[in-house]
Specification:
Blueprint lengths: L2 E8 L6 H9 L4 E5 L5 H6 L1 H21 L6 H26 L2 E4 L2 E3 L4 E4 L2 E11 L3 E3 L12 E2 L1 H7 L7 E5 L3 H12 L3 E5 L11 H13 L3 E3 L4 E7 L2 E6 L2 E5 L1 E4 L3 E3 L9 E2 L2 E2 L12 E3 L10 H15 L12 E3 L4 E6 L2 H8 L2 E7 L4 H4 L7 E7 L2 E9 L6 H10 L3 H5 L10 H11 L9 E5 L7
Parallel strand pairs: 1-2, 1-6, 2-3, 6-19, 8-15, 9-10, 9-15, 10-11
Antiparallel strand pairs: 4-5, 5-6, 7-16, 12-13, 13-14, 17-18, 20-21, 21-24, 22-23, 22-25, 23-24
Bound molecules: flavin-adenine dinucleotide (FAD).
């Protein structure tokens, strides 16, 4: 252990390993310091197991509808999700080994932009240190997370729910709370979701909040908005919670109220809003020290982390990376929600005037095969170009690449209308929206158009 490297990366999550791989493939000597498992929160306790569970229960919903059968224990589904997470982690370990990244096990203490201490050894970095230290579950005082009955995402995915659980309190109506409430309700638990603000998915377009509420109600989740939870603790075999001022009992509580960036203690490191302050290359205020991923600012998402990771090492190697497009936000469920680029209001502010076209997607053939009638696709258009896509339909997460491409490149609506979309596929929704904007979608009886900016009309 110890020695000289070109690049030392601290943290093996999505903000760390992609940069390590790119640097190693470029011929640099790279060390990646990781105290737990490579893949970070995403692979072990976040994106991967949560999406494996969502998939398992989305499929179960379809099976039940088609064949009318119930069943399927939650323990089995969680074991499946852990299995998928395990495969992803071993795949990453083998990738790192094959490209020549040296994985150093232990907690890294960032000393400067050139030095990292791990145990008794010091790693020297010729080009720079990338801090991809990520984030950890956060809860306010009064939330006694013991990962027995009061769980955060790590306890939930590693231990599961205690035997005999019937009722679950989910605290937090962000994407983690919404996704896991849908899964737990479909698995047969009695779920209560409590959110302090007046709507679910508070950072996203209002249409998503309304849809999430409908989906949760349909699955039997009791949603309580504008309600504060002040205390949650295990009491014997149950959980006691003070919800909206009164005491209530549940079998389990799942806390999904927020995450805290793991900012290293380095002299001169500037922090803004709790995150390490970085420029577009990931450079911090400390010479040689770069940061990427959750530690470097919102949105705290794995794909944003991966992009920043690669950009940071490219900058260390002296390559100036090109501009980055907007970061898509995706919420997974029986109906996926995708949001990328400007909302109508934002676009009107930036371009002076903007329009939005919204089409319902329930009539599209591919969507009917999912047995789901809700859904919409919205394009935000400024100066004839797509600058935002906000859509919710089954499988929309798979259309998020196309949505990002449209919003990143600012594709003219006429050109989108000229792109042939395979039928039947759910991404036809984006084409229908473009057609509707230009005068009439094929499978849409009536869409909705709004304009903001120089004048405001609704039809
Ligand atoms: C339940 C849940 C579901 C999610 N689902 C999605 C999703 O579907 N899509 C999405 O894009 N994002 C999702 N996220 C967010 C995503 O997990 C994070 O944005 C992503 O993991 C951030 O990557 P990161 O590398 O910055 O940090 P992390 O994944 O937190 O990785 C940091 C790593 O660094 C290690 N580390 C930290 N400090 C040190 C040190 N000093 N020494 C050694 N090792 C250290 C940690 O052990 C960890 O492995 C989800 C999060 C949660 C909680």
């Amino acid at each position: 252990l110890g020695g000289e490297y070109d690049v030392v990366v601290v943290g093996g999550g999505p903000g760390g390993y992609p940069g390590a791989v790119v640097a190693a493939k470029s011929g640099l000597r790279v060390a990646l310091v990781e105290e737990a498992r490579v893949g970070g929160e995403c692979a072990s306790f976040g994106c991967v197991p949560s999406k494996a569970l969502v998939k398992a229960y989305s499929a179960l919903g379809l099976v039940r509808r088609v064949w009318g059968s119930g069943g399927g224990g939650f323990g089995g589904a969680l074991a499946f999700a852990r299995g998928v997470a395990g495969e992803v982690v071993s795949g990453l370990e083998s990738l790192l080994e094959r490209v020549g990244v040296e994985v150093v096990r232990g907690r890294g203490v960032v000393l400067s932009g050139r030095r990292v201490r791990v145990g008794g050894s010091t790693l020297e970095a010729r080009l720079g240190v990338l801090c991809a230290c990520g984030s950890e579950p956060w809860a306010p005082r009064g939330f006694r997370v013991d990962n027995v009955r009061v769980l955060d995402n790590r306890g939930f995915f590693s231990r599961g729910l205690p035997e005999g659980t019937e009722s679950v309190l989910v605290v937090g109506g962000g994407f983690v709370g919404v996704e896991l409430s849908l899964v737990l309700a479909r698995a047969g638990f009695r779920v209560t979701l409590v959110e302090a603000l007046g709507r679910l998915l508070p950072g996203m377009d209002r249409d998503f909040s309304l849809l999430a509420r409908r989906l949760l109600a349909r699955e039997g989740v009791s949603v309580r908005l504008s309600t504060r939870v002040d205390l949650v603790e295990s009491r014997g075999e149950r959980v006691y919670a003070v919800v909206g001022g009164s005491g209530e009992y549940y079998d389990v509580a799942l806390v999904a109220v927020g995450r805290k960036p793991r900012v290293p203690a380095v002299d001169g490191l500037e922090v803004e809003g709790g995150f390490v302050r970085v420029d577009s290359c990931g450079r911090t205020s400390v010479a040689g020290l770069y940061a990427a991923g959750d530690v470097a600012g919102p949105p705290m998402l794995a794909h944003k982390a991966m992009h920043e990771s690669v950009r940071a090492v490219e900058c260390m190697m002296g390559r100036e990376p090109g501009p980055r497009g907007p970061v898509p936000v995706v919420v997974y469920g029986p109906i996926d929600m995708v949001s990328v680029g400007y909302t109508l209001e934002e676009a009107a502010r930036v371009y002076g005037a903007a329009e939005e076209v919204r089409v319902p997607t329930g009539g599209l053939a591919a969507q009917r095969a999912h047995g789901v009638v809700d859904g919409f696709a919205k394009l935000v258009v400024a100066r004839g170009r797509v600058v935002g896509v906000h859509a919710a339909f089954p499988g929309a997460s798979e259309a998020s690449g196309e949505a990002s491409l449209l919003a990143s490149l600012g594709v003219p609506v006429e050109e989108l209308a000229g792109v042939v979309h395979a039928h039947p596929t759910v991404s036809e929704a984006l084409w229908e929206a473009a057609m509707e904007y230009l005068g009439g979608g094929v499978h849409v009886v009536r869409g909705r158009r709004q304009r903001r900016g120089s004048s405001t009309t609704t039809s």
